[in-house]
């Protein structure tokens, strides 16, 4: 089963001062070895956004090239908007990227690996599975 890996996990893995025993990074490494990582284009964009040095951007972009993007459909975007509306109606705010992640995870039955606690709130309104990170 493929796993959607959220931006925050990738950021931890690529951080220069990332501890080598970080449970989230270790789990990501395991998922990569098992070819279970599913990349989404918007996550790729978030990972690469804000990288000032062009050589660092190119290096990271090349590294991420090993992970093909999931082919998003109109229904994924429409369902993301539906989740957004339901969450907003219930006082839960989030980003468009987060709701798109929820939509793809729900529609295509892929768990999400994240440290972002916002996804716990989305889980009340979207049928998503979150992977637990053993610490």
Write a brief caption for the model.
With 135 residues, the chain is mainly alpha-helical. The chain has one domain: 5'-nuclease (Rossmann fold), CATH 3.40.50.
Provide an overview of this structure:
The protein is mainly α and 135 residues long. It has a single domain, classed as 3-Layer(aba) Sandwich (Rossmann fold). The protein is 53% helix and 5% strand. The chain has seven helices and three strands; from the N terminus they run E-H-H-E-H-H-H-H-E-H. A three-stranded parallel sheet has the order 2-1-3. Helix 5 crosses helix 6. The chain is globular. The model has no long low-confidence stretch (mean pLDDT 94).
Record keyword descriptors for this entry.
mainly alpha, 3 strands, three-stranded parallel sheet, 135 residues
Element layout with pairings:
Elements: E1 3-5, H1 7-14, H2 23-33, E2 37-38, H3 41-48, H4 54-64, H5 74-89, H6 96-107, E3 112-113, H7 118-122
Parallel strand pairs: 1-2, 1-3
Helix content range of the residues, please? 40-55%
Q: How would you state the average pLDDT, rounded?
A: 94
Full CATH superfamily name: 5'-nuclease
SSE series: EHHEHHHHEH
CATH class: Alpha Beta
> What is the rounded Rg?
15 Å
Unreliable residue runs: none
> How are the strands of the largest sheet arranged?
2-1-3
Taken as a percent bin, the fraction of beta residues is 5-15%
Q: What gross morphology would you assign? A: globular
CATH topology: Rossmann fold
Classify the oligomer: single chain
- Figure out the total of helices: 7
Main beta-sheet annotation: 3 strands, parallel
Distance between the termini: 22 Å
CATH architecture: 3-Layer(aba) Sandwich
Total domain modules? 1
Instruction: Compute the number of strand runs.
Output: 3
Structural class: mainly alpha
